[in-house]
Amino acid sequence: MKESFYAHSKDGEPPERWQLLEEHLTRVAKMAAMFSRAFGSENWAVVVGRLHDVGKAHPDFQAYLKRSGGINASEYDDPGTGSHPNHSGAGAILAYERWPNIIGKTIAYLIAGHHAGLTDWFGGRDSLFHRLEAEKGIADAVRVYAKPSIENLPPKMQPPDFAMQCQNHEAVAYHLWVRMLFSCLVDADFLDTEAFMDSVKHAQRSTFPTLHHLKSRFDHQMEKMAEDAPASPINLIRGDILAACRFAAEQSPGLFSLTVPTGGGKTLSGTAFAIDHAIKHNKSRIIYVIPYTSIIEQTADVLRKHFGPGNVVEHHSNIAPEREKESPALTLAAENWDAPVIVTTNVQFFESLYAARPGRCRKLHNLINSVVILDEAQLLPPELLYPCVEAINRLVSDYGMTVVLSTATQPALPNLCQAPLEIIPEPSILYDKLKRTNIRFPEEMNAPHDWPSLAAELVTEEQVLCIVNTRPDCYALWKEMPQGTIHLSALMCGAHRSAIIADIKQRLPSGQPCRVISTQLVEAGVDVSFPVVYRALAGLDSINQAAGRCNRNGESREPGTVQVFVAPKPAPIGLLRKGEDATRVLASLTGFIPDRPETFRRYFEKYYSSINDTGESWWRERLVRNANPDGHVQFRTTGKEFRLIKELSVPIIVSYAGNDELIKQLRFAGPSRRLMRALQRYTVNVKPEAAKRLLSEGRIEEIREGILVQADSTLYSTVIGLDIYREVYNPEDLYV
């Protein structure tokens, strides 16, 4: 009688109800091949699918399954020891023996990493180089089982031409191709395992409507919105922008730019381009990528209104637990982005492209043949600009993606594979038509304004917004202002900031006094409109974003006033200072016009040139240690080091808006995913030095390892948030 080998057991179920290993390998290979067809790599997916779990045929692993399934292994005369061997290395070794070159090495990366993540080639016991030697004993034990699969594998394997450009020192595409294949394998493995182990959960995975079906709903909502909108010059211009986007959607896939002033309706017009373009060119999904979690919910709400609440997946760290509970299908779709419309963050999008962990990489194959809108593209991190742009290049050239760089201040991104096609025919004319503000620069760019005299100017206005560069500046100026002035900064938790912004939105149209001192958090995506805005000297993109909070909807026929001033102290050394310096240089030139597309391009060229390294040296050292066809890639190191937010921060859970019950649950029951999600909106991030000081003084306490909670009831203020400025606190411990 032929011996049966199993991939998965079920508690309390006899072996007849377990999943056969052959069935699992076949199903994963078939599914992974289907996923990889879009980039011409089906043969590779079949190979890794067939071999990824052959190590489970090891007698020790079969004994482990029988024991964990409640069956005594000795009843089956199993010679195993009952231990749980590392099964992922066996298929990797067998593949490398068959193809002892970059082909076998590539397959080995994929198989060896399908649980713990893609490995580095060099470096320690976890490196692929070490594992290919150290785990040969496991491979030897399953050779007989694996022999039919090995014999049926293709005799020759050839990567797509684009993936082998790693032989060219100037173009590195191999790493992304490997990650795409890895995505196909791990998603297929996840889904097949889930279908067997948890059929109830698997059944909750919704079959979403296609973009073809969603287009009629979107168009209907857009028509209704146009009918309800009052006739005004701005709404007429927004209609022209929408028409330009829909006209440009007919163009061939590739790289586009959407250059529209703040308040011009970029979100919906860009989405109209995306869905029309997707229908025209058979694209599979729309992915909206946003720089900040603080504004992602606003965009997602707009898209839900137009596509339907069950068709838009949010994927970010701040998603509300109640929203996940309302729709399990959307929560499951966030795992692999298997939905028609995705809204996510720069962090989630770009870090996934350089990740090594299965959970993070799982979604990558669903990026293929999609339309991606990069909102506020100027906010890509300058220190990692090269790898971010290189990822955009590869997604466009190799994986059928259309990318839209959408912003009011279009950056001059270096090293793009092609010049973006501008969707708006003449952006400069559009900026003239939509001009709603006059941006005034000080006559003397090196003469700082002191806080008391600036405060004296601000109090002459009933409604005014003043934006500064750092938290300490925000607090220092706010202290000089009269009672009732609103303080807005990231010293407030997310729930608090949302409440403050809602209050501002209520005050402004009703004509109530509304003076606000804020950090730059108000500049992106916060839909407020002041008659007067003051902005501390900063990067030109920030100044123009600030201008977008002034006379935003053309409430006044006369242009609103945006007054730039020089703060008492320059911005901290680093990117903020470089932006400030680049603006100062441009403002000194004859003919300087601060709110024109051509000026933005000159600004970004100067700004990027002031940064010594935009990530190219890191890329070449970490991704391809040897830029040759040997495939010596440090996948795991890259995944750990590629972080868009590098500044170390410590989250403190604060008491706000009656969240004491949640904190009590955390204190006595411990953390859970649901609870920590709920508390995410009640956290404030500070530098480690500040957290250490607060802890030593008993103002906060560590109730669980790494979980800090407010202990002093006076530490958090409903006026300024975390009151870290009092007594011994050092403002330098705060984030800008």
Written description of the protein model:
The chain is an alpha/beta fold and 736 residues long. The protein has four domains: 6-203, Hypothetical protein af1432; 211-431, 3-Layer(aba) Sandwich (Rossmann fold), CATH 3.40.50.300; 436-594, Rossmann fold (3-Layer(aba) Sandwich), CATH 3.40.50; 650-733, no CATH class. It is 45% helix and 12% strand. The strands form five sheets. A seven-stranded parallel sheet has the order 5-6-4-7-8-3-9, sandwiched between helices. A six-stranded parallel sheet has the order 10-15-14-11-13-12. Helix 1 packs antiparallel against helix 2 and helix 4 (88-98) packs antiparallel against helix 5 (102-112). The longest helix is centred in the first third of the chain and has 24 residues, at 174-197. It is globular, with a radius of gyration of 28 Å. Mean pLDDT is 88; it is low at 73-82, 166-171 and 728-736.
What's the number of helices? 31
Molecular shape: globular
How many separate domains make up the residues?
4
Percent in helix: 40-55%
The structural class is alpha/beta
Determine the N-to-C terminus distance: 71 Å
Unreliable segments of 5+ consecutive residues: 73-82, 166-171, 728-736
- Sheet with the most strands, sense and barrel status: 7 strands, parallel
Beta content = 5-15%
The strands making up the biggest β-sheet line up spatially as 5-6-4-7-8-3-9
